[in-house]
């Protein structure tokens, strides 16, 4: 790439255009070793904290066997012990090490967050973009679906779905969360594409012979990257919370160790009565920590999509 | 003492990711009380930055890095926001480039005036009757009083710009900054607003700093003109001296972009190349790489802004001429520039050739349903013409005259309600979706706005390869190779340097070349160019016109050139059609239509063409090179 500076461009295009965000990212990503979007995220103090926290969670989850002294299901310790040097956070009513469970639980939360987040983002993208781009009858039908998804009370639906599903398991939890959580994102993406679909470059793509789907996903979608990322972060965050909630209610997969099931067992095992505060508090704290890290990262993503929010 | 004194002002952009850019470098000028000063230069020369600096409106990462701004005896270079607030709008006001967006969309025009009066009670006077005063102001800019009750979206672009002007004058400021206040408006509307502005200045006597890239308008309006290039002032002369005795080669280049379309022989020049990259330091004259008369010394010695002629100029050649006692005149006459485009220079396709596209009695009526009532709007009525290979047909008309509807019917975006559009033996109006896609291989579009016609996230190679792959069925590698060839054809060479660029890395002119290359990719027989030069700097317009002309001749393309700029129509077109309210009012060979304009609208358009140096009714300028004097207008 030649050394042409992008500064005059930045100086002359005074009009704030959300499309520039994507461009700034693509551009910086091409020329530097560090991707441009990452530079913008890292520069934001709140976002940096969030990224560090998230990285911490990921490292711990991936390296769980190395971090933990015992397996998460090993139950040959004393029952309902308080914190000690051997068991930092004590043991459960079944004699399992709470700390080990906590570390392995991070895996579940992250997997659910990422997979359910991706799934609901994809559903939201396909439905929202198709509805907004095509308009007319297709839009009417899809918008009806979106509205339906918005007005149906999510928690009862989730509980009903997971309670009556013939199979249990993490997959079910993920599917339930994705199916119930896409509507809001779809609505936002539909609104955004309605403003983008009349751009000249879309007309140009039609004249170039491109088909509808190609126009939607190759021409328009890249211009709303930051919106898609914000949507993904939102749904991932919601999914982590929802999984913990379902598991706490006992509707999750009892075979999977997650922070939600830990809370459920702590509550069922009378952690409060036996004074095992660590067993009860620890899953809540890490859950709050993970959700906070996502929220903090979202500040940076906002800055990515809106140059005015970038801190100087 | 002058009203506004700017001394050695520098503005530096310091973005965090890239090198510093000195957008304004050591600029010194003053504006006297009641004086009208024009500030000229191409996009990216630092004009708007200078304007914002004078108003102290710079935002990060830009900041004043040196110099002083003294307004009315007060140094405002370091003044705090609280000190500036009572000054702003009362003494210093502005009309921005996109005043369309500077009006608050959720409140009525009256409220905008009321806000302005409420914020400056002392200046506006206590207990002021808002309706009365705002009504007066609207009448001043030739708007009816009932505009007060309307919201900005209910007004046309020209009306909004007038409201913005009335707002700027609401508190009788001593100084108004106008930053390209009419760019983007219909030429006729533009002319009306500028004429009104000139009258108002006579009446109210405020000083103006008028920023524009359009030398023609500036020279007509201003008392004195500053020419800016690469962040520096390069020339400062009284307006009539800029026209007849300009000294700097850059000014000469800007002047070259004008001609009278009624002349027997019309030619315009352009300035090849791009403004310098200000993030790097330069030795020598900044203009040297683009200068047709540069000598060796220009490469190494940076000229100073020195007194010359009736003002100042920054050019070594002028400096030497002054030192030698030779009258420093026309260091670089236009005809020395090698970038000249002349109309009718080379032969075109035959006037009676077999037409490739025939529009026969086409009309379009839109049904508008509002509140249960259905009314029909006739956008186009009974229009007939034919496009022939290797010939250009210009379609002229004001906004809303139906030009775009005709373009949409020809490209198959709309179906005509009456009559037919035939391409060879196909009836375009009856094509289905799939057939339409095939048809578009033959009919392509060049867009008006090169900034929105290219996807900001897609490379040049991607944009050009899409039609190649879809319409011509080329493979990935072949498409890329062909895209390179197309870039060379439109003058972007070496192509390898441009293929992987993103649109924002290109200048406006370069983007428009890419748009043209994309339109050519599928080897179309018909090209519809929808005001392809109206968004570009005046100084490079001729470049794009020359390119279109060459492509039409070399490739035998039939082109429909939509415009409201009669000069470019004269340069490019073989025949001209004038459209007024959906009906064709004039149609004939270019020279005939332009020189013997019968329709009032055509005459208005002719009058609206800025032509520095030509006599203009009401203007007291000396006779210019125009052979045919402007006819008196009704």
UniProtKB/TrEMBL annotation, chain A:
Top-level lineage group: Bacteria
Molecular function as annotated in GO: dipeptide transmembrane transporter activity
Segments traversing the membrane: 49-67, 110-134, 141-164, 170-188, 216-240, 277-301
Membrane topology value: Multi-pass membrane protein
InterPro entries recorded: BP-dependent_transpt_permease, MetI-like, MetI-like_sf
Keywords linked to the UniProt accession: Cell membrane, Membrane, Transmembrane, Transmembrane helix, Transport
Signal sequence annotation: none
Domain ABC transmembrane type-1: 106-298
GO CC terms in record: plasma membrane
Matches recorded under PANTHER family: D,D-DIPEPTIDE TRANSPORT SYSTEM PERMEASE PROTEIN DDPC-RELATED, OLIGOPEPTIDE TRANSPORT SYSTEM PERMEASE PROTEIN APPC
Name this protein carries in UniProt: ABC transporter permease
Organism whose genome encodes this protein: Nocardioides iriomotensis
UniProtKB/TrEMBL annotation, chain B:
UniProt feature coiled coil, ranges: none
GO MF entries: ATP binding; ATP hydrolysis activity
The keyword Magnesium is annotated on this UniProt entry: no
Domain ABC transporter span(s) in chain numbering: 4-255, 363-606
Record carries keyword Nucleotide-binding: yes
Chain spans, region Disordered: 610-634
Keywords: ATP-binding, Nucleotide-binding, Transport
Record Gene3D superfamilies: P-loop containing nucleotide triphosphate hydrolases (3.40.50.300)
Gene Ontology BP annotations: peptide transport; transmembrane transport
One Pfam assignment: ABC_tran
UniProt record similarity statement: Belongs to the ABC transporter superfamily.
Name of the molecule in the record: ABC transporter ATP-binding protein
């Amino acid at each position: 790439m030649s050394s042409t500076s992008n500064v005059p461009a930045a100086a002359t295009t005074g009009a704030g255009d959300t499309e520039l965000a994507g461009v700034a990212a693509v551009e910086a990503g091409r020329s530097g070793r560090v991707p441009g979007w990452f530079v913008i995220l890292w520069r934001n103090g709140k976002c940096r904290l969030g990224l560090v926290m998230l990285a911490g969670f990921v490292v711990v989850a991936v390296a769980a066997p190395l971090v933990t002294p015992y397996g998460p299901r090993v139950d040959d310790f004393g029952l309902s012990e308080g914190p000690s040097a051997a068991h930092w956070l004590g043991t459960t009513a079944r004699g399992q090490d709470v700390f080990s469970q906590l570390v392995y639980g991070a895996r579940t939360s992250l997997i659910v967050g990422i997979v359910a987040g991706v799934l609901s983002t994809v559903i939201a993208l396909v439905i929202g973009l198709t509805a907004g781009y095509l308009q007319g009858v297709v839009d009417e039908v899809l918008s009806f679906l979106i509205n339906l998804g918005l007005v149906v009370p999510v928690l009862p639906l989730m509980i009903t779905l997971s309670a009556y599903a013939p199979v249990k398991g993490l997959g079910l939890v993920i599917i339930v969360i994705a199916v119930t959580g896409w509507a809001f994102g779809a609505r936002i993406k539909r609104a955004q594409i309605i403003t983008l679909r009349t751009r000249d470059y879309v007309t140009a793509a039609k004249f170039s012979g491109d088909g509808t789907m190609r126009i939607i996903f190759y021409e328009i979608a890249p211009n709303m990257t930051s919106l898609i990322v914000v949507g993904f972060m939102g749904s991932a965050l919601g999914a982590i919370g929802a999984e913990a909630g379902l598991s706490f209610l006992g509707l999750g997969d009892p075979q999977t160790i997650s922070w939600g099931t830990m809370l459920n067992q702590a509550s069922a095992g009378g952690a409060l009565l036996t004074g095992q505060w660590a067993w009860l508090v620890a899953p809540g704290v890490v859950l709050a920590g993970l959700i906070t890290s996502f929220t903090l990262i979202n500040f940076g993503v906002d800055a990515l999509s809106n140059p005015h929010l970038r801190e100087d | 003492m002058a009203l506004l004194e700017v001394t050695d002002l520098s503005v530096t952009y310091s973005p965090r990711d890239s090198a510093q850019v000195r957008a304004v470098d050591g600029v010194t000028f003053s504006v006297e009380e009641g004086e009208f000063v024009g500030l000229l230069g191409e996009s990216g020369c630092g004009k708007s930055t200078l304007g914002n600096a004078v108003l102290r409106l710079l935002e990060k990462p830009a900041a004043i890095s040196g110099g002083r701004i003294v307004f009315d005896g007060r140094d405002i270079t370091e003044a705090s926001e609280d000190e500036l607030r009572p000054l702003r709008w009362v003494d210093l006001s502005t009309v921005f480039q996109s005043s369309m967006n500077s009006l608050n969309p959720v409140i009525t025009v009256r409220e905008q005036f009321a806000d302005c009066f409420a914020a400056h009670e002392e200046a506006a006077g206590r207990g002021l009757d808002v309706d009365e005063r705002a009504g007066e102001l609207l009448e001043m800019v030739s708007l009816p009083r009932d505009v007060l009750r309307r919201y900005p979206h209910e007004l046309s672009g020209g009306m909004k710009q007038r409201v913005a002007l009335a707002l700027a004058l609401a508190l009788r400021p001593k100084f108004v900054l106008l930053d390209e206040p009419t760019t983007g408006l219909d030429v006729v509307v533009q002319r009306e607003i500028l004429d009104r502005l000139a009258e108002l200045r006579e009446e109210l006597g405020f000083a103006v700093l008028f920023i524009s890239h359009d030398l023609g308008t500036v020279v007509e309006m201003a008392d004195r003109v500053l020419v800016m290039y690469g962040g520096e002032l390069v020339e400062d002369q009284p307006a009539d001296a800029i026209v007849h005795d300009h000294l700097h080669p850059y000014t000469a280049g800007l002047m070259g972009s004008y001609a009278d379309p009624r002349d027997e022989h019309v030619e315009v020049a352009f300035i090849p190349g791009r403004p310098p990259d200000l993030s790097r330091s330069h030795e020598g004259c900044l203009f040297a790489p683009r200068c047709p008369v540069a000598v060796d010394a220009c490469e190494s010695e940076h000229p100073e802004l020195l007194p010359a002629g009736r003002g100042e100029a920054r050019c070594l050649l002028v400096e030497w001429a002054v030192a030698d006692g030779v009258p420093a005149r026309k260091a670089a006459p236009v005809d020395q520039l090698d970038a000249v485009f002349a109309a009718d220079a080379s032969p075109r396709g035959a006037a009676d050739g077999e037409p490739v596209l025939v529009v026969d009695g086409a009309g379009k009526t839109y049904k508008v349903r509002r509140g249960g009532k259905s009314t029909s709007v006739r956008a186009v009525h009974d229009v007939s013409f034919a496009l022939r290979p290797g010939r250009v047909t210009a379609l002229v008309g004001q906004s809303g005259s139906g030009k775009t509807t005709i373009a949409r019917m020809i490209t198959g975006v709309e179906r005509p309600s009456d009559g037919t559009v035939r391409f060879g033996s196909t009836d375009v109006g009856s094509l289905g979706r799939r057939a339409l896609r095939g048809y578009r291989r033959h009919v392509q579009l060049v867009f008006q706005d090169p900034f929105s016609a290219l996807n900001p996230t897609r490379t040049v190679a991607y944009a050009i390869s899409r039609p190649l792959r879809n319409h011509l069925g080329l493979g990935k590698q072949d498409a890329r190779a062909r895209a390179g060839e197309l870039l060379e054809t439109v003058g972007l060479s070496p192509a390898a340097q441009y293929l992987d660029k993103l649109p924002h890395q290109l200048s406006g002119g370069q983007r428009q070349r890419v748009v043209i290359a994309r339109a050519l990719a599928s080897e179309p027989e018909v090209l519809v160019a929808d005001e392809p030069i109206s968004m570009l700097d005046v100084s490079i317009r001729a470049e794009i016109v020359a390119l279109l002309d060459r492509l039409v001749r070399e490739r035998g393309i039939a082109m429909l050139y939509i415009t409201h700029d009669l000069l470019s129509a004269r340069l490019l077109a073989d025949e001209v059609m004038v459209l007024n309210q959906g009906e064709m009012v004039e149609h004939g060979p270019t020279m005939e239509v332009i020189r013997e304009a019968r329709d009032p609208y055509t005459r208005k358009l002719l009058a609206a063409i800025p032509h520095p140096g030509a006599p203009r009714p009401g203007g007291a300028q000396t006779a210019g090179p125009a052979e045919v004097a402007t006819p008196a207008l009704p």
